[in-house]
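Postdoc handover notes: sequence design on the structure in folder B. Input tokens:
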């Protein structure tokens, strides 16, 4: 009888441990959250996805699904916030960009962006396709190829080969220096860039960091801004049109 009791206790402990492990496994929670979403139980899906987020097991897919769940519950600020976080991890994903666009169309504020110059657009397009790490590798490999081509130029006797190798050395050197420059610019922008999303339904943009200051404009939830600095309970922000001002820092959440 005692032996049976011991076996039963061991079985119960093993089963409990297995059940607890399943509850803690991010993949199992993600699967359950997806089931909640497919059944239209969006609040339960959000709760499950956020349990994964609290374990730091984040991914573009997790943030994308959170964005979708909040979009289904008409919580636009939260939806945009998580789509933006997903886009940081996977900037080339068309579905994330499309859904972010749908959520942005539901915002009240329609702020025009400052047009970029030709070189800014070109740099942004390159950075869109290549990460900072990839640009750094491209710079290193291009310089190595340039060095190899220059050595071939010095050692070659044939004049046509010398011209070709010298031209290749110059081309690879230009690509290497350009890639290195773009990677440094992208890294600098990434380090100082502090994007955020407004969560307050009505947010007052003020001239100075105090409640008695002049109000420039009233902003609304879901508007994306850049944080320039923080002073006590206020954040200085910059809008897409270049306008700056102060808002209460509790009215926004940083994306990064």
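Designed sequence:
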């Amino acid at each position: 009888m005692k032996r049976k009791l011991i076996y039963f206790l061991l079985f119960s402990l093993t089963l409990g441990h297995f059940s607890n492990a399943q509850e803690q496994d991010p993949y199992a929670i993600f699967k359950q959250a997806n089931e909640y979403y497919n059944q239209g139980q969006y609040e339960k899906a959000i709760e499950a996805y956020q349990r994964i987020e609290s374990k730091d097991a984040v991914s573009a897919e997790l943030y994308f699904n959170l964005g979708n769940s909040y979009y289904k519950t008409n919580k636009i600020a939260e939806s945009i916030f998580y789509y933006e976080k997903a886009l940081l991890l996977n900037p080339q994903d068309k579905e994330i960009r499309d859904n972010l666009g749908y959520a942005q169309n539901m915002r009240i504020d329609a702020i025009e962006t400052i047009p970029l110059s030709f070189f800014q657009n070109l740099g942004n397009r390159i950075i869109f396709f290549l990460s900072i790490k990839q640009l750094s590798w491209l710079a290193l490999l291009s310089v190595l190829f340039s060095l190899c081509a220059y050595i071939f130029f010095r050692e070659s006797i044939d004049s046509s080969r010398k011209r070709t190798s010298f031209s290749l050395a110059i081309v690879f050197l230009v690509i290497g220096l350009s890639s290195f420059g773009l990677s440094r610019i992208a890294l600098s922008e990434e380090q100082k860039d502090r994007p955020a999303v407004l969560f307050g339904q009505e947010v007052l943009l003020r001239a100075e960091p105090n409640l008695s200051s002049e109000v420039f404009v009233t902003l609304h939830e879901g508007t994306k801004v850049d944080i320039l600095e923080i002073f006590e309970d206020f954040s200085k922000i910059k809008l897409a049109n270049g306008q700056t001002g102060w808002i209460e820092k509790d009215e926004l959440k940083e994306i990064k």
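Context for whoever picks this up: The first helix runs from residue 2 to 24. Don't rerun without checking with the PI first.
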